[in-house]
Amino acid sequence: MKVLLIGSGGREHALAWGLAQSPKLSKLFIAPGNAGTAQLGENVPISAENLSELAQFARTEKIDLTVVGPEAPIVAGIRDLFERENLKIIAPTQRTSFLEGSKVHAKAFMEKHGIPTARHASFESFERAVTFARTMQPPIVIKADGLAAGKGVAIAQSHAEAEQVLREFMIAKRFGAASQRVVVEEFLAGKEFSLFVASDGVSWKLLGTAQDYKRLLDGDRGPNTGGMGSISPVPWLTEQMLDETVKKIVAPTFAALRQENLSYEGVLYFGLIWTERGPYVLEYNVRFGDPETQVLVPRFDFDLLEFYLAIAERQLERFETTLKPISVVCVVIASGGYPEHYEKGFVIEALTPGPTPLRGRGEWGEGVLIFHAGTALKENKIVTSGGRVLNVVGLGVSVSEARERAYSALAQVSFQGMHYRRDIGSGI
Ligand code: AMP
Ligand code: GLY
Fold first, then answer.
1. What's the average model confidence in pLDDT over 145-150?
2. CA 61–ligand 2 middle distance (angstroms)
3. In a domain? residue 48
4. At 47, which CATH number?
5. CB 3.0 to 4.6 Å from 35: which of 186, 326, 375, 405, for a disulfide?
6. Which domain holds residue 30?
7. How far apart are CA 284 and CA 277, in angstroms?
8. Where a domain ends, among 157, 186, 215?
């Protein structure tokens, strides 16, 4: 089968690595990909947001299945476009993508269906939002309605700060139309975790749990980032807590979708928080997470391509989504200066272009995988080309073994200005 994978981050390299192991795969294209995906298939220089060119490529190359990594093309309606052209694709429809594409709509959905989430109100008027925020006890959570590349959530510590954030979002339109409407919600205290669930529109299956490390610096300090590391499974989440989450959140979400006549095909990401009153939804995402995918895919004890085909053919119920009983730790190496300004184009000495070892052995040692994110090929060298550059992934029988493997491999990698956290998976 010929597969087209859309995206260019660490998530997509991990998915490419999973797909490349399938005996059913004959050719993998990645649009636009990175220097890591180029080792597993052919990169195609089409942006993940250029839907019409992607469809044209799928048509001319006679692609059997398209898999979508990031949210932007999903929210822009890639599934609908491909379907109109009879092209097989795994992604939820645009109608269903409000779960991630509009916080206002997603919160209304949760409220209507009694799915536990922070109490909130939505606003289009700046004055009303400020008046409402003044009635709340800080910290106050403010969310831009639309997609804002993970930067659309602010936690204000005072009423003055809340007003300033609302002004920035709604008046200065920091995220354009995406921040014209906002959600103002109560702050929930607890421990965050993510749960990934696949659905084919008929049934759904749990895929696993993960935790990401969003802050830039050790000890969860510094600014929020796209993710500086991740672990799977979530070590503190017991079987009982997972059952409760399924009962209170996952099952009601899919029941609610059905009630609204919405069919969900693809992977649904539940961003959750475990509070004193049990699990609450912080957000839904209509896709796999990054960097969570980098720790989930190595645990999949099934053929990733067969898994996607089972979704496409609505046969998920019969498909076993078994996980390996291992722990996986991912440490992100970022460019110096990220998430603010950073320079690109530094050579990553340790990496050489060439095929990636498929089984986690080889040049990086037992149980280590390196997934690229912001990397590019330049004159036969691998250079940095983004904020988050590499994902060093360790696999082990325990978190500590996985962590040790990741960090000892990481010691072999260097490029100018690189930054990483030293505490991913520690203290567990
Ligand atoms: P979201 O994009 O909605 O997941 O928000 C991003 C991050 O903001 C979450 O991972 C949490 O760390 C934080 N956050 C969002 N909503 C809340 C809330 N109601 N209470 C506390 N923290 C929150
Ligand atoms: N890890 C957060 C996200 O993928 O949105």
1. 85
2. 31
3. yes
4. 3.40.50.20
5. 375
6. 2-95
7. 20
8. 186
Average pLDDT value for residue range 226-248 = 97
Ligand 2 site residues, Cβ closer than 6 angstroms: 150, 212, 227, 285, 289-290, 292
Report the chain's mean pLDDT, rounded to a whole number.
94
Number of independent structural domains in the chain = 4
Q: What's the gap in Å between 24 CA and the centre of ligand 1? A: 40
**End-of-domain residue from the set 40, 60, 95:** 95
Specify burial of residue 46 (Cβ count, 10 A radius: 0-12, 13-18, 19+). Answer: buried
Question: Which atom of ligand 2 is the closest one to the Cα of 214?
Answer: 1
Nearest ligand for residue 154 CA: 1
The residue whose CA has the least distance to atom 4 of ligand 2 is 289
Residue 104 lies in a domain: no
- CB of 170 closer than 6 A to ligand 1? no
Using CA atoms, how far apart are residues 365 and 403, in angstroms rounded to an integer?
14
Q: Is residue 111 part of a domain?
A: no
From the list 34, 1, 48, 40, the residue with the least C-alpha distance to 17 is 40
Pocket of ligand 1 contains residue 153 by CB under 6 Å:
yes
- Whether residues 20 and 89 share a domain: the answer is yes
Examine the pLDDT at 353 and tell me if it is beyond 70.
Answer: no
Q: Does residue 426 register a pLDDT over 80?
A: yes
Do 281 and 338 reside in the same domain of the chain?
no
Q: How far apart are CA 197 and CA 379, in angstroms?
A: 41
- Ligand 1 atom, smallest distance to 187 CA: 20
Q: Cα–Cα distance between 167 and 425 in angstroms, integer?
A: 38
pTM (predicted TM-score): 0.95
Closest ligand 1 atom to 120 CA = 19
Residues of the chain with pLDDT > 70, as a percent, come to 97
- Looking from the CA of residue 117, the nearest atom of ligand 1 is 19
